[in-house]
Specification:
2 domains, alpha+beta, eight-stranded antiparallel beta sheet, 3 helices
């Protein structure tokens, strides 16, 4: 017990058993504990990132002039957890005829709509769809076909060089992995992938 300058005794609190153990812990053990805690935090963060996002490499020219061969795209898996794909969204999906392969295309037709292609244009419920973002007019015809409750019609932006719904049919909702929203490589092509109809889809 110490004494106060005024002459009063001062009681010192005894350290708790936990404090005694911590003070006596070997520095190496403390370092290992911090290292393990940090590693666990990193693993949890990586698991959350992988649950919410995915990465995809563009192969081929089917999405030109907007996406190019060799570009890497970040996919948002959570975009459709609480909503549905919209016309103009670029989506990555498991190819319905071979789920081991992933494709990237643009959503054109929505559930319940009737899709036809003629005279180089897409018609939705009988009305032509204006698409200034595509490589050029289509040289093929399709439909008319009415989509089911959970079916989408997807096309590449390079219409005449794309393996898409006009070849193999409609895309089930369950096959969609997520929405492509960012080109992150190469740096010269970095940028958001925008929906051309965000101002109001026709």
């Amino acid at each position: 017990m110490d004494e106060h300058p005024m002459g009063f005794p001062i009681e010192r609190a005894e350290p708790s058993p936990e404090q005694v153990r911590e003070r006596g812990a070997h520095p190496l053990l403390s370092f290992l504990r911090e290292l393990i805690e940090t590693a666990l935090i990193v693993l949890v963060a990586m698991a959350l990132v992988n649950t919410a996002t995915a990465r995809f490499r563009i192969e081929g020219s089917s999405m030109e002039p907007n996406l190019h061969d060799g570009e890497y795209v970040l996919i948002s898996k959570i975009s459709y957890w609480f909503g549905s794909p919209q016309r103009g969204d670029v989506v990555v999906f498991r190819f319905p005829h071979d789920p081991s392969r992933d494709f990237i295309k643009r959503v054109i037709g929505l559930p319940g709509e009737t899709i036809a292609i003629r005279d180089g244009k897409v018609f939705i419920d009988g009305r032509p769809l204006e698409e200034p973002y595509i490589r050029g007019p289509m040289v093929y015809t399709y439909g008319p076909v009415t989509l089911g409750p959970d079916e989408y019609f997807v096309l590449g932006d390079n219409r005449n060089a794309s393996n898409d719904s006009h070849n193999w049919g409609t895309l089930p909702r369950s096959a969609i992995i997520g929405k492509a929203w960012l080109v992150y490589w190469p740096p010269s092509r970095w940028g958001l992938i925008r929906n051309p109809f965000d101002g109001g889809a026709p």
